[in-house]
Specification:
Layout (H helix, E strand, L loop, with lengths): L2 E5 L2 E3 L5 E8 L8 E6 L6 E6 L8 E2 L7 E6 L4 E6 L8 E7 L18 E5 L2
Parallel strand pairs: 2-10
Antiparallel strand pairs: 1-3, 3-8, 4-5, 4-9, 5-6, 7-8, 9-10
Amino acid sequence: EVQLVESGGGSVQPGGSLRLSCTASGFTFTDSTMGWYRQAPGNECEYVSSISLSMLLRPYYGDSVKGRFTISRDNAKKTVYLQMNSLKPEDTAVYYCAAMMFQPPGGSWCSGSWGQGTQVTVSS
């Protein structure tokens, strides 16, 4: 059974930083591209970033986070990270980790079926 434990969220002021972590179990971590999605109240699930296994492929970043967020992974720890800098109020959302070798559980990467997500709130 796939389990993804997200952590690192919190409340910060605009311009602040947070580092999200996601530790995976239940599948072979090194087989999967890993990603982050987010969902704010009333909004659709948004694709934030992803990182493949291949060093030849650049990570993906959504336009709204490009230049501010950095994704990385530690295969030995089965963990993927999302470093978020220069945070804006519009970054406020629940952030979900995704094991993208699978189909999204419940039809959405933001369903919370694998992990509860981690809340990020950016407010002054």
